[in-house]
Write a structure and sequence with these properties.
By secondary structure, this protein is of the alpha/beta class. It is built from 19 helices and twelve strands. It has a domain of about 325 residues: Glycosidases (TIM Barrel). About 40% of the residues lie in helices and about 10% in strands.
């Protein structure tokens, strides 16, 4: 069936949007979640003339709580489940929520929140088993048996149940029968872990139910959601455990080669991401069924999708798994247009934005144009040389322009630490003294010909490097920034809405 939604495509009017991951929302439960604060944020975004909310991947994070290294490419993040919504469903009581830990207001406390919310979810599950209404039971059963879940839910719930029993170690360290998915071992696990499997399905039911409420609230306010699909998945994930034949692994499940990018101006040793690489030839023989199921699932969560590391679909950097850095890799051909033809044949129009950043060759540009996807431009990248492709006078309209992304410093942080020559180029190009550099970049994004202009919330607030979301290569301190309650004010909204009106983005 063709995918239909109020998506952003070639014929879309000019729009403005905000980049803010739900974990960065305010709230008293350790991380942002899908409760009232999410609805309040949508109200603010609508008052600011925003037509787009971009989020990072919504899947359950693994090591380091990175949304780009998840235990499933389809399941939802339990940390985003709102205890407040569970209270409204009588699955939690006011006493259950009466004394949360003293979480910081401006930083996501993932580990402590995971412990506390994990206990609350166990309480909710116990209360559901004892006191659920017929309607509540019917909704859970309908979720478990829906066609949308047949490709992933049971395998994911079983994976999580086995991981819980194994004290969290990666699947390749499980007993051999479970790691290899031996039929008899899996049958035994399903029998022995039935309660835990049902609990994991209960968690997913509530994530998707709560996200549906948020998504519907966005639509009611004229706001589309832009999701995010990373090109690769984590080694320790239900995806790899369930579909080993689709990945380049040895007989024990360890990657033979891993993903990354080669050395460049920013890194003399490149970036060794460590994700297992696909067997694209095997995927093509299946008609790219795994990718079709993945994109279909993510299009249920969002109106449009940012497709991460688009250049890897043209050619990807393959690093032998034993190499400690990305230096000794090689370029290998990706699936190219064959993948996108298969996706389009199965799903209809593809409302995708290609993250076409990094080392971009003519073949990458040709693939993006041939696919019909909008590309990305980052204004921060524009001031290292005159006539940069990241400056607005070089844009085509079928583009999403950002002041910066989750991987960049904030606009103010960038300017404060940029070389003097880059600062001078920025002043000359923008035509002001850049005393409020974040606003100067926002104005440049809005006034550009790009159909889509997206601004991280940190730049709306004019924050410095202390508010940076991600520093690539740092595995300990990322993804934690949160907006303080009330920080996004009516004054911010009024200023943005006036600019949107002036530039045809309302």
């Amino acid at each position: 069936m063709a995918h239909t939604s109020d998506t952003l495509d070639r014929n879309t009017k000019r729009v403005a949007g905000v980049l803010l991951h739900p974990t960065s929302l305010p709230g008293r439960f350790g991380t942002g979640d899908l409760g009232d604060e999410a609805i309040a944020f949508l109200d603010w975004a609508a008052s600011a003339g925003m037509k787009l909310w971009q989020v990072l991947p919504l899947n359950p994070p693994g090591f380091g709580y990175s949304p780009y290294g998840c235990t499933s490419s389809v399941a939802g993040n339990p940390l985003l489940i709102s205890p407040q919504r569970l209270l409204q469903e009588n699955l939690l009581t006011a006493d259950d929520l009466a004394h949360p830990p003293d979480f910081p207001a401006d930083e996501a406390s993932f580990d402590r929140s995971e412990t506390w919310k994990g206990r609350l979810l166990r309480i909710a599950w116990d209360r559901f088993q004892r006191k659920a209404t017929a309607e509540q039971k019917s909704k859970l059963e309908a979720f478990e048996n829906a066609p949308e879940q047949k490709d992933w839910l049971h395998d994911f719930a079983l994976y999580m149940a086995l991981k819980e029993r194994a004290a969290g170690v990666p699947w390749w360290e499980w007993p051999a029968g479970f790691a290899a998915r031996d039929k008899q071992a899996i049958t035994r696990a399903e029998r022995e872990l039935d309660g835990e499997i049902r609990f994991q399905k209960f968690i997913q039911h509530h994530f998707f139910a709560q996200w549906k409420l948020v998504h519907e609230a966005a639509k009611a306010r004229g706001i589309s959601i832009m999701g995010d699909v990373p090109i690769y998945v984590a080694s320790d994930s239900a995806d790899v455990w369930s579909h080993k034949d689709l990945f380049q692994l040895d007989e024990k499940g360890a990657p033979l080669v891993v993903a990354g990018v080669p050395p460049d101006y920013f890194s003399a040793t490149g970036q060794r991401w460590g994700n297992p690489l696909y067997r694209w030839d095997v995927m093509q023989k299946t008609g790219f069924a795994w990718w079709i199921a993945r994109v279909r699932a993510n299009l249920r969560l969002a109106d449009t999708i940012r497709l991460d590391h688009f250049r890897g679909f043209a050619a990807y950097w393959e690093i032998p798994a034993h190499e400690p850095t990305a230096v000794n890799g090689r370029w290998m051909p990706g699936p190219g247009m064959a993948l996108f033809d298969a996706l389009r044949a199965a799903l209809g129009d593809l409302p995708l934005v290609a993250e076409d950043l990094g080392f971009i060759t003519p073949e990458v540009n040709e693939l993006r144009r041939g696919s019909g996807f909008a590309g990305m431009k980052i204004l921060q990248f524009g001031f290292s040389q005159p006539d940069s492709i990241h400056l607005p006078h070089r844009f085509e309209s079928h583009t999403a322009v950002y002041t910066g992304t989750h991987d960049n410093d904030t606009a103010r942080g960038w300017f404060d630490t940029a070389p003097a020559n880059d600062q001078a180029l920025a002043r000359t190009y923008l035509g002001d003294d850049c005393s409020d550099f974040a606003w100067s970049l926002i104005r440049a994004a809005y006034t550009s010909v790009a159909d889509i202009a997206i601004v991280p919330a940190q730049d709306i607030l004019g924050l410095g490097s202390e508010a940076r979301m991600n520093r690539p290569g740092d595995t300990l301190h990322n993804w934690r920034w949160r907006v303080r309650d009330g920080a996004l004010t009516p004054d911010h909204a009024q200023r943005l809405k006036r600019l949107a009106e002036l530039t045809g983005r309302v």
